Amino acid sequence: MRDYIIKRILLMFPVLFLVSVLVFTLIHLVPGDVVMSMVADSGQFNPEYIEKVRHELGLDKPLYTQYLDWSSGLLRGDFGRSLWTGKPVMGEILHRLPITLEIAVLAMVISTLLAIIVGVISATRQDSLVDYIARLVSIGGLSVPEFWIATLVVIYLAMIFNYSSPSGYTPLLKDPLGNLQQIGIPAAIMGIRMSAGVMRMTRSTLLEVLRQDYIRTAWAKGLRESAVIYRHALKNALIPVITIMGTQFGHLLGGTVIIESIFMLPGVGRLMLESIQQRDYTQLQGNVLFISMAFLVINLLVDLSYAWLDPRIRY
Amino acid sequence: MATRKGTILGVGLLLLLGLLAAACTPAAQPTATPSTRATSAPGTTPAAAQGEPGGTIRLITYGEPPHQDVHQSLLTNIQGEGFGQAYSGLLMYKWGPDVAALDSIPVGDLAEKWENPDPTTYIFYLRKGVKFHNIAPVNGREFVADDVVFSHTRQATKGWPNAPYVDMVKTWEAPDKYTVKATLDKPNAGFLTIFASGYNKIVAKELVEKDKDLKNSPHIGTGPFIQDEFQKDVMKSLKKNPDFYVKGQPLVDKVEFYIITDDSARQAAFQTGKIDRYGFSTPIVKALTAANPKLVKKEYKGSYGGFNFGLKVSQKPFDDERVRDAISLALDRQAFIDTVQFGMGWFSQGITLPKEDWLLPQEEFAKAWKRDVPKAKQLLAEAGYPNGFDSELTVAYTYGQSYISGGELFQSQLKDVGINVTIKNVDSPTYVERVIQRGTTGGEFKMYLGPLGAAAEASAELYNTYHSTGGRNVSGHNDPKLDKMIDDQSQELNAEKRKAMIMEIERYLLDKNYKLFIASSTSQTLVQPWLQGWAPYAGGDSHRAAILRTEWVDSTSPSKKK
CATH homologous superfamily for A89-314? Predict the structure, then answer.
């Protein structure tokens, strides 16, 4: 197990290197830069100022020099400074990460509860009315983009219930209920939508497991339904489900871009969107690299969890 | 058994959704342009505001500025919609119900009055007893003439974005504690108007000396509000300055700016009474006023800025005046106003004028810009393009849906005369780089549709955009006659004579079609019924937004019910 973990960690470095080259190249291929964003916002244009700021930010250096400067900083654990604010990139990410983590964790909880519960009901009552409804809803959930649902929720809550999220942002530790009012709806939208895929996977893998000999044996032994389903069948059906959930959690860290903007939440997703709009290269590169690292770590944890779920799996 | 468990699970699911539902249960230019030998042109300050004191005004802003230095930023989210409210300047624009929104009338702010004994000298007499905010290291000391000299000398630093608003002044002097003398390098008809802009703010010398820079410093000024709460990327607030030099102002205790970037979120926040006023697009205004008839809708001509249709005049085929005329005749600007702008537009050429009557009559624009497809085809044929030609239209789509829709409308209109246009949608940084920045040296466009932000004064716009050497002459035209007309009006201190000269320039531009300006927008601001005393910012000066000094909220405001 230890060797496996070390090997996986070592493999992360070439992946991160490739990600760094890719994100650096792609963002620099897009026309315009951070100084253009600054003057675009103000609607005024001063060539001297533009050249001066470009020089100060090092944007007048050759691209390979800019990459080497940035990547050598990374090797020292320095993600650089935001070109827009001049503040440390990692500081900006860490400042906003708790909000995104909160949304992601709450969305995962909602998604998991809904998906497992509905998936189990759907599988154990295959081809019943409940099953059809659950499948129909889950296909709907997969088909409709969450930004569309979010926009409708925001507008209809205002129109019908005269409700909108409280202004400003309330930290969880300061006022948990106030925080829930701000985080709850976006997390529910993401969670309910995400649950569609997990629910379908839970249903199909559970149906497969329920047809295995050992399940038939369990029924034959006269075990209660709950014991058969939850102790024997569900645990064995969870491996592909957890793989999907792990991937979804990774997506959540970088996939809250639109939701955070609609619900006025200053998380990592909105930071990412702003970085793109502002051509804040260093901040965007830092964000992507950070999320890639999180993705790799989550994937490793998911792989390790297989051994816990299925004792036959050994690394 | 299984059914009962399923029911229990279902109930659990409903409970979870119920909990979530519970979480969201409602709980320009001077009118008094100094004459050549004028000895004085006294400014006045607005009368003390009348209204109920207290409460909070809650507004929307669009994001965080990159830094906090008000001398190195032209962004609205630091100047007027944010901590810029902590500052004031020597002059400002007059505002109120009796002032047309388009008129930029300089009045005194920190200066009680001024005079210009000769065409290049202005002497400002300052208010006495004005104090900076009581925050270290300034600690509420008195504002004096040296602060003006320091601030505007600093602001004029070469290359700084705010420098053009003061760099026409050759020297600043402080003959005594309450007098400032500004000597211009040459007569400048628009000086007072430009100088009254909200970009010209007085900062404290001690703070600059302590921090070397103001990019990460607190905001310490002499303005009506004092920096208060700051939630990065979420909101910022300022509280009333109890020692403000205009007694009785500001009326409200606090002003809050919320960063809301999404249209639906802005609409929801306004609809639920969390925001006190905002300028929405026409469809949203209709939806909101239908839902709540008590909302007050204000329509006004807020700025000369608007939709700009540019051509690369220095290159073929646009170097031929007949081609430019043909394109202008092919475009139906009235249709653009009627459809894309929902009727909320008017004709101008994007030049900020001292008063609205300096603008050519709308009928004259309508006549010159009347769509005439047969004549356009004839002109194209005479220019050697009987079958038209292919071209490309760069559209700055991130500035709003109007640009996307407008691009498509003009594409179809140009097709009618045989010009087949491919639309290239680009975001704002790309637009600025390809069109604005590199436009003067070639650029990467043939035709473009983008915004024209109004300059503070007619000369600024004319020099920037229409003078052959202008920093934004992206059309690339070179017209010595036009250059001379621009130079002449800029030094004409007699307002009537200058008005005639500028109107002549407007007609000349209509004839030459170096730029095919489309229309200026009629602004719409929705105001909650409890917010009183709001009037459009004078001359579109959102950089000072001095209106916040006299706005007030009545007892029905949610901020007073708390």
Answer: MetI-like (1.10.3720.10)
The tokens for B412 are: 């179809």
CA B260 to chain centre: 19
B248: phi then psi, degrees, rounded to nearest 5: 90, -5
* Whether B28 contacts B457, CB under 8 Å: yes
Q: Looking at per-residue confidence, does A247 or B168 come out higher?
A: B168
- Kindly list the residues from chain A whose CB atom is less than 8 angstroms away from the CB atom of residue B63: 274
Contact B475, B311 (CB under 8 A): yes
HSE-CB for B351 with a 13 A CA cutoff: 29
Three-state SS for A36? helix
Which pLDDT does position B539 carry in this prediction? 55
Residue B469: count other Cβ atoms within 10 Å of its Cβ: 9
The mean-pLDDT minimum among A52-61, A103-112, B171-180 falls in: A52-61
Query: The tokens of B71 are what?
Result: 């001398």
- Look at B437 and A31 and tell me if their CB atoms are within 8 Å: no
* Amino acid B207: pLDDT: 96
Transcribe A146-165 into DSSP letters.
HHHHHHHHHHHHHHHH---P
In angstroms, how far is CA B442 from the centroid of its own chain? 28
**What is the mean predicted confidence (pLDDT) over B342-354?**
91
For the segment B535-547, what is each residue's pLDDT rounded down to a tens digit?
A: 887 655 667 788 8
d(CA A102, CA B26): 23
The mean pLDDT value of chain B amounts to 87
- Verify whether the Cβ–Cβ distance A45 to B427 is below 8 Å: no
Which pTM does this prediction carry? Answer: 0.83
pLDDT at B27: 37
Domain residue ranges in chain A: 89-314
Q: Quick check: A270 contacting B, CB < 8 Å?
A: yes
Determine whether the interchain pair A37/B268 forms a contact, defined as Cβ–Cβ distance below 8 Å.
no
Predicted confidence at residue A85, as pLDDT, reads 86
Residues in chain B: 562
Coil, helix or strand at residue A278:
helix
Residue B174, both tokens: 């402080």
Q: Choose, out of A28, A44, A283, the residue to mutate when testing the contact with B (most B CBs < 10 Å).
A: A44
Single out the residue of B346, B319, B273 nearest to residue B528, CA to CA. Answer: B273
**pLDDT value of position A21:** 93
